Amino acid sequence: MEVSLLFKIAAVGILVSVLCMVLKHSQREEQAFLTSLAGLILVLFWVLPYIYDLFQTIKDLFSL
């Protein structure tokens, strides 16, 4: 896993956290929830290829 990916995930986490706090203080809980969901989906799309590679490696390891 690349270090830049970890920094991207951390940046998205900080940005989503700040946006959620601002939206919750302005009484917009629905938009805060959607913002956190969008951040989660974005990070999931970044991590999904690595999860796929992990399962492929495990499959190749046990299928001798």
TrEMBL record:
Domain of life where this protein originates: Bacteria
Segments traversing the membrane: 6-23, 32-52
Pfam families: SpoIIIAC
Keywords: Membrane, Transmembrane, Transmembrane helix
Protein name per its UniProtKB record: Stage III sporulation protein AC
Native source organism of the sequence: Lactonifactor longoviformis DSM 17459
